[in-house]
Amino acid sequence: MVENAQEAPPAELLAKLKSYPFLAQYNLNLFCLKKDSSAADEFLPCGSIVQDALSNEIGLNFIGRSLKPELPAKKTAVYRYNGGFLSFVVSFNIGDTDFCLVGNGVRDKLIDFWQLERLSRADKVDVFSLLSQLERLPVATVHELEELAEHIHEMLPALHPGEMYQSLYDQTVNRLAMVVGLLEQMDELKSVNDLVSFTTELLAFVFHFPKVALALLDADRGTYSFVGQMGLERVEDIAKDRLGELLTKDHIKKPLNFDEETAALFSGVSAQNVTLFPLKAEGSHIGFISLFDNEPQAVDALLVELLAAKAAAKIRQLKKETEHLQLNALSNRLLSVTNTLLFAENKEELYKTILELAADLLNSTQGSIMLMDKSGENLHIVFTMGMSLNLAQCMTVKVGKGIAGKVAKTGIPLLVNDIEKDTRIGIKNRPRFKSKSLISIPLKLKDKTIGVLNLSDKGDLGVFTESDKDLLTSFANLASLIIERTLVIEESVIFEKMAVTDALTGLYNRRFLKNRLEEELTRSIRQKLNLTILFIDLDHFKIYNDLCGHIAGDEVLRKTAAIIKASLRDMDVVARYGGEEFCAILPGTSKMESLAVAERIRAGIEREVFPEEENLPLGRLTTSIGVASFPEDGHTFTSLVHAADVALYEAKTVGRNTVVVARHVMDKD
To answer: Could you confirm whether domain 182-321 is CATH 3.40.50.720?
Structure first.
């Protein structure tokens, strides 16, 4: 048709034809035959722009994948086939190349259901899906397609290769400028969700791809999850290892037919082919873009590749920013948690707080804290959530046995998605657990395991993730330090108390009494307050001890200590001075006021029933009390104790079971 013209470029020619509005709705397939070609008996495909993959596939199956010369010889032709599909053919030549343009993607107004059913059986396609696809196609008549083919044939001589190049160049430059401008807007996006929506909308509305889906790698679950899509129903997640081969160089950016294997991967998608563009950042696949029922042209493929690279880099940036914010939030939260744990009043409150905070961090509804005993052979539950603590505390887990026992032995965290399928566990799920997922973290101090923290049953009944394990491990390290600190403080308090406490009665000992009395004297002198001490001694206790034995005597001392303590105020101090002798300090109390206290103690001991006390000289076990006060009876520890001791001796000599106050004799020191 065009004499002495340079060789025509198929891609540019197709792009030029597709740019005409009256051809926008059609699938265009270009076949060509060079005059010096050895395959002179057939035209071979040299390019296509596909709007609807299914109708194009059906059209090419009817007309042929390669064209015999007799078809192009008709110059223009229109065909109706397979239940109502329509195609047109236009043959022409440019320079030394013969071309044949095949267009399809429209249907007749009338649909032949019988032929459609035959077609579905032949291609093993669901007839209702095929009918639905057919109904969505634009409608035309055979006469309209004949006129269209004639119009194309008439306008082709006016197309020159140079104009095609220029037209394609202008379109490419305009498309590139638009895409670059849109990519600049991508820099302003603040979340991954916004970026995913922006990218899928750009592909659908700017590139006019009919079916688009964007998937991101969920590292915790080992799957690619479809987070954005256009023109599709819900697409199922794909396991990472199943898709790995399709993201290699041999498959990416090339249309893949929907064979059984590919269709099984993209469950829920009805399509003829798919083209994948990987999202790669810092050398790793973080996702992919999938285009269904479309074969992107070279220019569009390059632009999509540019978009994919930009989107991947932005996603990585946003995720790093999110991780940084989460890390800061976690640090602040752990700091708050530290303060909360440090202010626990006792170890029971600490265990409760640790478990509640851990459960809150992972949205868990059941859990337990188990600590190792001193032998290092058993774990004991110290606090639980979701079961009776009294029952749990009766249970012992052998180190090395069961889930928690294995974690305690190895010191390695254990994350289980399904307790029945996990080969490390493989046991039937227990009835009280709603979910089959659990997480067990060792409580460690350096390399020493002191216990195990267990959580199960997420609030949404989901599975625990690697992120959950990392978060709980960080928390467990902090909790371990505070548990150890609490136990050390508790032991030090016990040792300190033992150093100043009488083991038999639980009262303070003589050493503590001396220090405390000196402190109270100093305060009384400074604030000009009264201070009284009581010396309390059991009558005939040695005889009782000889009659009843030391075990009974020890019980008498414990009961006496309890009676004395119950008779005093919280601010008063009582100590075992030695043997059967006790001393009480009454700060801010005058001698007269103290007499009532002393009498209450004496009467309380007299009323108490002791075994075999009827054999004592007085017929019962009684006590004698000596009373001395500051300032009238002394200003020092030694002088006050001496005055009270003298008064006690006097009580013994006047018949016992009585209270005697010290005489007003001032100390001379």
So the answer is: no
